[in-house]
Amino acid sequence: MPDQAKELDPLAPTSLEIGLSALCLLHIVLIGVVLLQLLRGKTTMPHGMLGVIVLLFVPVVGPVLVLTWGGRVERHQARVYQSAA
Predict the structure, then answer these.
(1) Distance CA 27, CA 25 (A)
(2) pLDDT tens-digit readout, 34-81
């Protein structure tokens, strides 16, 4: 049997795989944070089912939008009340 020097593919993940894995983990952590905030009553889900879809299927940005939704609504309502007064 001839001894051939055959180079094997590296087992280490590529930088793209590391980046995608980090992005997926960040998304999962953010979903956990949103669920904790929802269960504690500190935030509300925007627009019902659309909010759930955004939360689950828009990577990273969806949970961030849900977390900041309440503050944006309050600022908008404050501007409306100031302009009406």
Answers:
(1) 5
(2) 999 989 988 888 888 888 888 889 888 999 888 888 777 788 888 888
Residues 16, 55, 76, CA angle at the centre, nearest 5°? 120
**Low-confidence winner among 1-5, 22-26, 33-37, 74-78 (lowest mean pLDDT):** 1-5
How far apart CA 8 and CA 54 sit, in angstroms, is 42
Count CB neighbours of 34 within 10 A: 21
For the beta carbon of residue 12, count every other beta carbon within 10 angstroms: 8
pTM of the model: 0.72
Looking at residue 15, its amino acid is: S
Exposure class string for 50-82: b at 16+ Cβ within 10 A, else e: ebeebbeeeeeebbebbbebeeeeeeeeeeeee
